[in-house]
Amino acid sequence: MDDLTRMWISTIPALDPESREVILGLDQASADPAERMVCLLLNRGHEGEDGVFYLLPDDLAARYERSGDRLAVTVTAHRDVLAHDLAAYGEELRDALDGLPRVASDGGELVVLLRREISTDFVPAEQDGEPQPVLLLDHVGGPVGPADPARLFESGDASIAVVNATWSPEGAARHTPS
Predict the structure, then answer these.
(1) Which among 45, 48, 92, 96 could disulfide-bond with 53, CB atoms 3.0 to 4.6 Å apart, if both were Cys?
(2) Number of DSSP helices (H) and strands (E) in the chain, helices first
(3) Which residues, in sequence order, are CB contacts of 42 under 8 Å at separation 6+?
(4) What is the pLDDT of residue 171?
């Protein structure tokens, strides 16, 4: 099933009216602890253009995967960075961290926070030899429609974080048991 209220291929005219982007929606009030962890890590961002926050690769990273006509995006974080930031929050989020799937990495232990996919023939463009970044649309208020990301951002009801992305070989990412 496509994640049409959580992942879009769209344009944010205020950023670049010519560019199609991969956008993942994040609800700050989500019941999903992993989605709330992503929102927490967005506070580590560094503001670039007006309202656009860039994240360090150690904060959050995204990986594109393609399987047939499906494009998937997996968002990961370094477990130790997340554990450090969760120290100031309730036990629910700290306990949920231990249950998240893990991904093998040369740079330390990564945890999978989000995985979303849709059917599309869209292939992210390359910029300087790397896949184009993934945009995280941070808002409050539950699922939104395909026309809403641009409207929410332009009205100031959402912010956008830019997350570096990589390509994974054909097929799903390999997870280690949690």
Answers:
(1) 45
(2) 4, 14
(3) 26, 53, 55, 60, 136, 138, 159, 161
(4) 47
pLDDT digits (tens, 9 = 90+) for 83-137: 888 888 778 888 899 899 998 777 778 999 999 999 999 999 888 888 899 988 8
Written as one string, the DSSP assignment of 9-27 is EE--TTT-TT--EEEEEEE
How many CA atoms lie within 13 Å of 70's alpha carbon, on the beta-carbon side?
A: 14
Stretch (H or E) spanning 63: strand 61-67
Name the pTM for this structure. Answer: 0.83
What are the distances in angstroms from CA 97 to CA 78, 100, 101? 11, 5, 9
User: CA-to-CA distance for 55 and 77, rounded, in angstroms?
Assistant: 11
DSSP 145: -
